[in-house]
Amino acid sequence: MLEKSIDVLSPFRLFTLDIILRAGFGLDAQVQTDPDPEMVEKALTVLETPVYVRAMTMFPFYKQVKEFFDVDLSQHSPYFIALSKSILEKRKISSSGRRDLFQLMLEARDETAEGTQKLTDEEIVAQSVLFLIAGSETSGTTMTFFAFYLAHHPDVQEKLLCEIDHAIRSRGDAPIGEFVQSLQYLDRVVSEGLRHSSVAFGNVRQCMETCVINGVEFPEGVSVNIPAYAIHRDPDFWPEVILTVPLSVLELNL
Question: 199 Cβ partners below 8 Å, 6+ apart?
Answer without folding.
Answer: 137, 138, 141, 142, 145
